[in-house]
Amino acid sequence: MTDIPALRRGLAVLRLLAGRAGPVTAATVARELALPRSTTYHLLSELMAAGFVTHLPEERRYGLGLAAFELGSAYLRHDPLERLARPVLRALIERTGHVAQLGVLHGSETLYLVREQPPRHATVVTDVGVRLPAHLPASGRAMLGALPAAQVRALFPSRSAFVDRTGRGPRDLPSLRRLLAEARRRGWTVEDGYVTAGFASVAVPVLDHTGHPTAAISTTFRHECDQECGETWPELAEETRRAAEELTARISGVPSSSARRTPAQA
Q1: In sequence order, which residues have a C-beta less than 8 Å from that of residue 143 and are 6 or more positions away?
Q2: Kind and range of the H or E element at 102?
Q3: How many C-beta atoms surround the C-beta of residue 204 within 10 A?
Q4: Beta-strand (E) ranges in 156-261?
Q5: Contact status, residue 118 vs residue 159, Cβ threshold 8 Å
Q6: CA distances from 238 to 92, 121, 208, 219 (A)
Q7: DSSP 8-state code for residue 226
Q8: Tell me: the pLDDT tens digits for 123-180?
């Protein structure tokens, strides 16, 4: 059991390196993780020996090694997110009777990985493998609302980035920010005909231990109105939130009652 603290510190080093855009100095690792200098060098040395960290001597910096890449590649081959999400989405459609989907951010787009639907349900455009501009679907904005403001601005640098499908939805960064702020206050994101006329959605992000959006779960259903009517569907949103918390728990191992409910300020 005496090796457990060292293991936790080693994992913390890997998480730190994975979260940076490039290699960092040992001093940065020590400062960010509040570790003694000697402990930091010992951890880095052990991780280098195992291939998880590489040292750039000319720059005096450390980055992720080949073993980390191999581990990440193996993770992707196993499709763990999809496997973990499917039973959660199936339980969600049993409770609501509506289409349930899992989406992830891919740049400024939402990529749909999993879709579950009741029998004889009307087809919607957001099928598995479909990409949509993230500012339109509820799932996309659920994830955008959990990102820092600077990152959202980088994803949508000008009005030309705001694609229009049905005449509804945000047309520029200020209008997108207003929608994200409303969603944070409410606790979930809504979409009323932004993607496909006659369909609406509610969505809740799935967050990792740092509050970063790993994915989003959405519930989609038929809804007709001539203009946006302001409906927010709190009962469906509560079921969707329940599913998002369950998936968060399945991914992180944290009990669902401890899952975050409010997206980070963006």
Answers
A1: 103, 104, 105, 110, 134, 205, 213, 215, 216
A2: strand 99-106
A3: 29
A4: 189-192, 199-207, 213-222
A5: no
A6: 11, 22, 20, 11
A7: S
A8: 565 667 788 999 999 999 999 999 999 999 999 999 999 988 888 999 999 999 999 9
Between CA 193 and CA 109 the distance in angstroms is: 18
pLDDT digits (tens, 9 = 90+) for 179-210: 999 999 999 999 999 998 889 999 999 988 77
Position 263, amino acid? P
> What is the rounded distance in angstroms from the CA atom of residue 212 to the CA atom of residue 206?
8
Residue 213 near residue 142 (C-beta atoms within 8 A): yes
Q: Which of 145, 148, 101 is nearest to 121 (CA)?
A: 101
Is 80 exceeded by the pLDDT of residue 70?
A: no
Amino acid at 225: C
Q: Is residue 140 within 8 Å of residue 217, measured between CB atoms?
A: no
pTM: 0.70
Angstrom distance (rounded) from CA 13 to CA 50: 14
Q: How far, in Å, CA of 191 to CA of 158, rounded? A: 22
